[in-house]
Amino acid sequence: MRALLFGLALLCGWPSWAANRCDVAVPTELAEVGEVRLAYQSIGRASDPALLLVMGLGGQLIHWPDEVVARLCQQGFRVIRFDNRDVGLSTWAQQPPVSNLSYAALRYKFGLSVTAPYRLRDMAGDALGLMDRLGVRRFHVLGASMGGMIAQHMADLAPARVLSLTLLMTSSGAQGLPAPSPALLDLLAQREAPNRQVAIEQQADLLAALGSPAVHDDRAQLLQQAQVAYDRAFNPQGAQRQILAILAEPSRVDLLNRLRVPTLVVHGTADPLLPVMHGVHVAAHIQGSELKLIPGLAHRFQEAFKEPLLAAVLPYLRAHRRPVGLAQL
């Protein structure tokens, strides 16, 4: 009888225990990785299989929605999110900003070389170095937008370490794919601002432009999101350097063709920045990959699409999750 009561107590206490284990309000820590210092959070048990989240252009670790991180952790993953170099609380490069980003974009458009202070492959090395510092040998990777591009390099640099690859709203960088509108590119590159209020307004404008036309955004909510990000860290020159890193490598098709890592590609049909053919093209060049298209999804984690995104990603991650302990070997 005592054993039965103990078992019932455990069952009744399970939701609370799981919530505590997946508390996203953990301290942000710093790790020295080569020439950079990376800010990161680790949510979940160290003994669980690790899932590394890699954010996109100018995005900070806080741009992974807390509820999404918690749901991923509740699947039995140790979720690690971090600031890429040049954003958030990680190291900011000291090189001066490019004098004419439009000129660099024009060179990229015509297939000419673009000079950048660092490359996406360097950023992939940062992420791998972070996992080294955390003592995690093998892990899953989920990358969004530019983070998906970085994740492609990670799987190429260390295929034996990447247990699975999930690529959200990303691209192969190949020539000939549909381009975003010039107006959206202008918003993306418009990072300088004379004061805090203008910077927050600009970021809210960008968030609105990256959203789905099927969803009405609350302007006050967008401004609040932009304010939180600004007050944590604001580095417009860093975003410009990250854009250069993207422009400096026009195609990853050969890289994708040689990947043999289990891969899921998820893309929205209403993506204004990387139209849906970008995702289709990525999946077409990764042998054995799965492709899931989400109707109406654009280029943001909007509330209306969180459940469809999770419905696409969670079953895949569960299917590739290793038993506890094996992912660390």
TrEMBL record:
Keywords: Hydrolase, Signal. Residues 49-299 form the AB hydrolase-1 domain. Residues 1-18 form the signal peptide. It comes from the Bacteria. Pfam families: Abhydrolase_1. GO terms for molecular function: triacylglycerol lipase activity. GO terms for biological process: glycerolipid catabolic process. SUPFAM superfamilies: alpha/beta-Hydrolases. PANTHER family: AB HYDROLASE-1 DOMAIN-CONTAINING PROTEIN, HYDROLASE, ALPHA/BETA FOLD FAMILY PROTEIN. This is Alpha/beta hydrolase.
